[in-house]
Design goal:
Distance between the termini: 25 Å
Number of domains: 2
Largest sheet: 9 strands, mixed
CATH class of the largest domain: Alpha Beta
CATH superfamily of the largest domain: QueA-like
CATH architecture of the largest domain: 3-Layer(aba) Sandwich
Structural class: alpha/beta
Strand order of the largest sheet: 2-1-17-16-14-3-12-13-15
Number of strands: 17
Strand content: 25-35%
Shape: globular
Length: 341
């Protein structure tokens, strides 16, 4: 199967640059996986499509304000550091700019010296290991100095950083938001729970690899990035009970889907687990546990649209995307949602 098989034409003006004033007023397209039928709704109507006994699985990862703007020492030339992976001992794997001026030994300063750093190693893929020096707790320093690492297709400055977090975000560690969850409000979650729908949480720390384009012509030649994920015991129990009762496990976002499908047994049984996953889901994949998916609209030729196509069929998904373009849906991170059922 070719990467070009997952291309669709998207007008630039449909890429949402800012979040809506109210999270759950975004639009919600429903797609019937059996018939391909499409309906147009709003996200606050999601409870209408859930049944008592179903469960929703949400990713509670919280985005790290991982983008640091500072100066190179000495001389004061501008620099940018994007934190990717905590390697321990105050050292992070990072993307840096300008790379040619940030070789091993380069010293950096952020926030008038509140945070300083040194490049300690250059990695084969161009990333750097950067060791930081600071007083106090690093996460608190980042909350003060860091900016949200918004995707490259968002050009507007984010006014309220919390709008790039889900309302249930809890475990800090993502380089990008699990954006399907951005539509939920506390009130909507309460309403869903009151209707007898179980709500469970997993953690998958989203890496920037999620935005890495598929450059290979054959999709099977693409090398998937790794991300750290956790399934707590109570979530595993909820999933197993839901399945035993003949009800649906509905994932909110491709990250929740990838977490469950990484660790589920072939018969769908789930156990508590933590570890790195590089699962790559594309058409032909047999889903072990997921019965429904709430997700945003994804980039053409991305691994995410391949995952959605594996679940609902490539032709049906591309037809639904064509309909979304025609109906002027908002696309990508701050855009509208779809429910594949």
């Amino acid at each position: 199967m070719k990467t070009s098989d997952f291309y669709y034409d998207l007008p630039q003006e449909l890429i949402a640059q800012t979040p809506l004033d109210k999270r759950d007023t975004s639009r919600l397209m429903t797609l019937d996986r059996e018939t391909g039928a499409v309906e147009h709704h709003h996200f606050y109507e999601l409870p209408d499509f859930l049944d008592p006994g179903d469960c929703l699985i949400l990713n509670n990862s919280r985005v790290l304000p991982a983008r640091l703007l500072g100066q190179r020492l000495p001389g004061g030339g501008a620099c940018e550091v994007l934190l990717l992976i905590d390697r321990g001992d105050k050292t992070w794997e990072c993307l840096v700019r300008p790379g040619r001026k940030m070789r091993t030994g380069a010293r950096l300063s952020f926030g008038n010296g509140e945070l300083t750093a040194e490049v300690v190693k250059e990695l084969p893929d161009g990333n750097r290991l950067v060791r930081f020096d600071y007083e106090g707790i690093f996460l608190e320093v980042l909350e003060h100095l860091g900016k949200m690492p918004l995707p490259p297709y968002i050009k507007e400055e984010l006014q309220d950083q919390e709008r790039y977090q889900t309302v249930y975000s809890k475990v800090v560690g993502s380089a990008a938001a699990p954006t399907a969850g951005l539509h939920f409000t506390p009130e909507l979650l309460e309403k869903i729970a009151a209707e007898g729908v179980g709500i469970g949480y997993v953690t998958l720390h989203v890496g920037l690899g999620t935005f890495r384009p598929v450059k290979e012509e054959e999709i099977t030649d693409h090398e998937m990035h790794s991300e750290y994920c956790v399934i707590p015991q109570e979530t595993a129990d909820l999933i197993n009970q839901t399945k035993a009762n003949g009800c649906r496990v509905i994932c909110v976002g491709t990250t929740s889907c990838r977490t469950l499908e990484s660790w589920a047994a072939d018969d769908g049984h789930m156990e508590a687990k933590a570890g790195w996953t590089s699962i790559y889901i594309y058409p032909g994949y047999r889903f072990k546990v997921m019965d429904g998916l709430v997700t945003n609209f994804h980039l053409p030729e991305s691994t995410l649209i391949m995952l959605v196509s594996a679940f609902a069929g490539r032709e049906r998904v591309l037809a639904a995307y064509q309909e979304a373009v025609k109906e002027r849906y908002r696309f990508f991170s701050f855009g509208d949602a779809m429910f594949l059922r």
